[in-house]
Amino acid sequence: MNSATAKLFPILSPVVNEPSAQAAAAPPAQEKEEDNVTDYDFSALTNVEITGVSLQDFNREQQEVLYQQARYCQAMTEADVDALREMIAEDTVFTHMSGRQQSREEYLVDIENGSLRYFSIGMENPVVEVDGDLASVAFTSVLNANAYGARGTYRISGTHWFERQNSVWIAVNDPN
């Protein structure tokens, strides 16, 4: 198990042993003919706010990764465990800030039963890097959540990792 876990969200952070072959397709993008940049409809993700950047500053591939990160956050706020299951590698292990670890399925059960409830997630100053089939999104998360009865707003900086599998970006952990 990878012990170099970046704390993306103050509640849990995923750790991946091996990437999954499972894939989740992002909704189709709308292509701009004049500059061949793909725009994703971030406005549909009503519980996620991206601040400190202009989406036009990102190339198509970076926008694709950022959109998948935003969809992941939206699914957390909607407790959409089916969508999350498709976006997260199946052998992911989540580590609480306390050190407690959970499998992907244990984590999703806690979201589904309300033990972990995410209300909104802000993504401040995201930086997206893509290197082949590996990508990272570094940002400061402003997370409004109720974690096991403790309601609060948490700010934490971290990096979320993605691996392109079957042409789709899947959430994984720091590969190092």
Structural description of this entry:
- A 5-stranded mixed beta sheet has the order 4-7-8-9-10, with helices on one face. The chain has a 3-stranded antiparallel beta sheet with strand order 1-5-6.
- The protein has one domain (12-172): Nuclear Transport Factor 2, Chain: A, CATH 3.10.450.
- It contains 3 helices and 10 strands.
- α1 runs antiparallel to α2.
- β9 and β10 form a beta hairpin.
- It has 176 residues and is of the alpha+beta class.
- The model is unreliable at 1-37 (pLDDT under 50).
Which keywords apply here?
single chain, 176 residues, alpha+beta, Nuclear Transport Factor 2, Chain: A, 3-stranded antiparallel β-sheet, 3 helices
Largest sheet: 5 strands, mixed
Low-pLDDT windows of residues: 1-37
Strand content: 35-45%
Mean pLDDT equals 81
Count of DSSP helices?
Answer: 3
Structural class: alpha+beta
Order of helices and strands: EEEEHHEEHEEEE
* Widest β-sheet, arrangement of strands: 4-7-8-9-10
Question: Shape from CA axes?
Answer: globular
* First and last CA, distance: 11 Å
What's the CATH first level? Alpha Beta
Please outline what is shown here:
The protein is an alpha+beta fold and 176 residues long.
